[in-house]
Amino acid sequence: MLTISNAEVIYSRVILVLKGLSLHVPEGKIVALLGANGAGKSTTLKAISGLLKSEEGEVSSGSIEFMGEKINNLDPEEIVRRGIFQVMEGRRVFEDLTIDENLTVGGHTRKDAAGFKRDKDLVYDYFPRLRERRNQLSGFLSGGEQQMLAIGRALMARPKLMLLDEPSLGIAPLLVQEIFQLIKKINAEEKTTILLVEQNANVAFSICDHAYIMEGGRVAMSGTTEQLKSNDDVKEFYLGMGEGHDKKSYRDLKSYKRRKRWL
Predict the structure, then answer these.
(1) Is 192 within 8 Å of 163 (Cβ atoms)?
(2) Which one is the CATH code of 2-262: 3.40.50.300, 3.30.70.260, 3.40.50.720, 3.40.630.30?
(3) How do the domains of the chain map onto residue ranges?
(4) DSSP code for 239
């Protein structure tokens, strides 16, 4: 569904953030982007959704293709119409609007009234807490409830590909588990392909099919969930199951060095 080939992203024409990034997102799957702060994960999502322009960023080389068509230079609204919707880090709900009004905004590009109503009911079925509070201002919701609303608002656009940026950020652990299980359920039942950016590797591995580990704007390692979970370096550096707490960078680990020899 989505292919990024040797993409470079530059900000303000001087700051190179993505450095030849390549990845694939198969239709119907959940793919995770993992890595520390500054690895380039959020920049990757903004490159896909067309939001780089608002931050003086651009894809300076390489290509991003969605459903076989290049989307590098499209405006964000056109990218949404083609079926990509990004749920931003920090949720970004409209705090002065009610839950119901936020969901209406999410489907503003749609013209099918019957389908619009059906999908709003579907969102409330997935997130019963939102139905209970549908006329409440969104600014009074908890962080977890706002994250549910942000995902529900994305569903209102009927996306083929949903981009989720750090959905666990600032949310209580019990709610994180609930939200991630709902993400998995949406993927299974609605056939929505999902590209997930997450720092919490354990929770990402609980739902994703494939993952890419990013470091310094590049892919350091990739594989299926099972392959990465069984890798000693991933266990040590991301899953807290090793003893090498003095390591400062994934580049110091043997798998990254092996990858560099392969490239």
Answers:
(1) no
(2) 3.40.50.300
(3) 2-262
(4) S
HSE at residue 155, side-chain half, CA atoms within 13 A, is 28
pTM: 0.86
Statement: residue 253 has pLDDT above 70: no
One-letter amino acid for residue 211 of the chain: A
Instruction: Tell me how long the chain is.
Output: 263
Instruction: Output 203-208 pairs: Cβ under 8 A, ≥24 positions apart.
Output: 203/168, 203/176, 203/177, 204/32, 204/34, 205/32, 205/229, 205/239, 206/180, 207/30, 207/180, 207/181, 207/183, 208/30, 208/31, 208/32
- pLDDT, one tens digit per residue, over 212-237 is 999 999 999 999 999 998 888 888 77
59 phi and psi, to 5 degrees? -80, 105
Task: Summarize pLDDT for 104-144 with one digit per residue, the tens.
Answer: 999 887 788 888 999 999 999 999 999 999 999 999 999 88
Cβ atoms of residues 163 and 84 within 8 Å: yes
Counting DSSP H helices and E strands in the chain, the numbers are: 11, 10
Q: What is the dihedral of CA 190, 195, 198, 204, to 10 degrees?
A: 50
